[in-house]
Hints:
This protein is of the alpha/beta class. The protein has a single domain, classed as Rossmann fold. About 35% of the residues lie in helices and about 20% in strands. It has helices at about 5-10, 15-30, 45-55, 80-85, 100-115, 125-130, 145-150, 175-180, and strands at about 70-75, 90-95, 120, 140, 165-170, 185-190, 195-200. It has a 7-stranded mixed beta sheet with strand order 3-2-1-4-5-7-6, with helices on one face. A hairpin with a 2-residue loop joins strand 6 (about 185-190) and strand 7 (about 195-200). Helix 3 (about 45-55) crosses helix 4.
Amino acid sequence: MAYNWKAFAHLYNLPDKTISNFVTYAHMISDWNKKFNLTTITKEEEIAQLHFADSLTLNQLIDLRQINYIADIGTGAGIPGVPLKICYPHLSLILIEVNSKKRLFLQEVITVLGLTQVEIVDNDWRTFLRKTNYQIDLFCARASLPPEELVRVFKDASPYKNSALIYWASKHWEPSVEISSYINDRYMYTIANRSYTLIKMTKTRTQ
């Protein structure tokens, strides 16, 4: 049975063109996954729920209409960066991915969907922090690096120390003392009977 994209459109109040892009993107993930491992989630309904809807949950924590520039750390198949770009076309997007095959897929997605203001960067995380200087408002990290690695973004020498960082955490994730000091907001939610927590971190530490 085909996934009910009309219900998805209604839930997020999305126009036909946006839904068309999501459908195309879902099919591309499924097709390319037959060539090499993009993701373990390959069924259309699961892609829509566990990838796309999960990505869009960010708008419950942050008003993305007020954000101009985001970066997706270890983006893989483009999650959450590409779904956010599809829904919020004004965003400038950096997709950080070291795997060359995944970068080929991402380039094809950008071309097929006609996405603009999207750049793919092949740096690993530490190299990205050392050698780039984009005007990034928000970093997203979903199933990529552990928080202890991610918070390097807030080091005094980092050009991104004043950016915000969103970390997709499991329901039972407990932050270390170091990580807790960076957390200033969180949002708990459930999708497809799975529970998660969005964690927002900034350099301003709690006392």
